[in-house]
Write a structure and sequence with these properties.
It is a single chain. With 126 residues, this protein is mostly helical. It contains 3 helices and no strands.
């Protein structure tokens, strides 16, 4: 029937199929030779599709909730580590090995600013 049954159907197409199914149920005397295309069989497939879509929606909501909780946990941990780094600096000093063990630079590891010499260019004259 379809070329690529691995991709999702457009919602407009599913809505059109639902409307067509509603119309099919109103046809008196509909008796297909293939039972697979009977109204009862199609209704069972529609009900199964609805249940699967409902399960997907609930799973997506659960995944979003878990993602939000993980993000909050990551930020709590990060903020606690920032506080621990500040406390370590306050307790042991800017130039301690304890500060360096946390991945921070010691104060002595920073280069002192160098004085610039003024021989590079001339100021524009008026």
């Amino acid at each position: 029937m379809a070329k690529d049954e691995t991709r999702r159907l457009a919602s407009a197409l599913l809505n059109a199929d639902r409307e067509a199914f509603d119309a099919l149920q109103g046809i008196k005397g509909y008796a297909p030779s293939n039972d697979k295309h009977s109204a009862a069989s199609i209704k069972a497939l529609r009900d199964r599709m609805d249940e699967l879509q409902r399960a997907e929606t609930q799973a997506l909501a659960a995944a979003a909730t878990a993602r939000d909780a993980a993000t909050a946990g990551e930020w709590e941990f990060h903020n606690a580590m920032l506080g621990a780094k500040m406390q370590t600096t306050a307790q042991f000093g800017d130039n301690s090995d304890e500060v360096a063990s946390l991945g921070l630079k010691k104060k002595s590891e920073y280069q002192r600013p160098k004085r610039r010499t003024g021989g590079g260019g001339s100021a524009p004259s008026k």
